Amino acid sequence: MTSGQVGILAAIVIYLMGMVYVGFYFSKKGSGDSTDEFYLGGRKLGPLVTAMSAEASDMSSWLLMGLPGVAYLTGIADAGWTAIGLAVGTYLNWLIVAKRLRRYSIVCDAITIPDFFSKRYRDQRNILSCIAAIVILIFFIPYTASGFKAVGTLFSSLFAVDYHAAMIIGAIVIVGYTILGGFMAVSTTDLIQSIVMSIALVVIVCYGINIAGGWDAVVQNAKSLSGYLSMTQIHDMASGTASPYGFITILSTLAWGLGYFGMPHILLRFMAISDENKLTLSRRIASVWVVISMFVAILIGIIGYGVSVAGKINLFTSSSESETIVIRLADLLGRNGFLLSIIAGVVLAGILACTMSTADSQLLTAASGVSQNLLQDFLKIRMNTRSSMLAARLTVLGIALVSIFLAWNPNSSVFTIVSFAWAGFGAAFGPVMLFSLFWKRTNFAGALAGMIAGGVMVFVWKYGVRPLGGAWNIYELLPAFIVASLAILIVSLVTAPPSKEICDEFDSIGK
Known about the structure:
Structural class: mainly alpha
Number of helices: 20
Largest sheet: 2 strands, antiparallel
């Protein structure tokens, strides 16, 4: 192992040990001793932690692997419109959902998203929370798998170690601090990880431009590719040609933003803030960070192509290769002495940060879905606090094992895996959440129909309709979101209106 690799490995190991320590610290403070503390941190998050933990848990390995990889291969259109949709979705989620959800969840005494759905509609049998918990399990498992894949890819690419061994070790660390410290450990590590991610983005941009021959060289190389810098064309790296990026495709890509309204691990942050009046500050911090980080991630993809042209790295022609662009640039940086290898290690820790900040939040949300919503609320299994916590921790472990199995193939694409899971949550939960918060006439039957219709439609469109191509090649989130919304609207109107108690509670939330 070279001195550069030693420096990189040292930085990563110190970072991982720090994350585990955070989990241990919060376990000693009692953050894992009760369900309210474990799942929601006792609603004690400050505005900075709320904002940055929400966005760090949102971005995942997609930010430093998937997005630069797409930009490298196809230019700015696909990545750019996706980023615009996500930026708008982020802002609107904070603006219209955050405060009202926080208030409503307190009135309902809900500590999880499935719990909120059932209590909102006085679902005594907890059917809504049961189905919501199942949806969480179905879509969080592949989402978590994408994170574990990123860990395995990072270490196998850098140190020529076995992909599977590296992935398992990364999973053990993530599961370890999540089980130990619960929500406060996850949120605190997410704040740290967002800082590390930001450092990684800045360092790679500056270094990449330098070894590509300067900014002018980067721009000239990008301009030489047909449609590479166009928002209405998409480049094909394999053939060197461009094809139109039409209105329907743009609309489909912008639909990524709709996913935010249904992301349980992000919505939980809204419920957990200590003071709803601080959400305005959180919104500003989150929105600015998201816009800047995604812009820089796309820029890294373009710079990466310039580095390939300069002969510093190979030219990539597949998504599984292009998604390693940040890893390759950090590896080059680490070959320039021990000090720079430490900095390269911090950059690579940024990829781990993206991965871990999402995986830990997803594992915790899934744990709450099984322990709280399935076992206790729906199946009526009586548990004391200790048994409930044990069930939650065993759920985290079980999901991690299944996720490792799904991530066993090192050639799978992070971007593809994340896009499907994102659509699942956005369609199954997004419309139900918006109608629950803003339409008093919504009833239990409508919410149930919308949740099922949205989740099922994601599969139908992804595997049955979208393969037809042409005008049908639309991101599954958009049609599924529309179908779910129509199901809620129609079923609510043709069935009995909600009770006076539910309507009075809705009115008490205010604007």
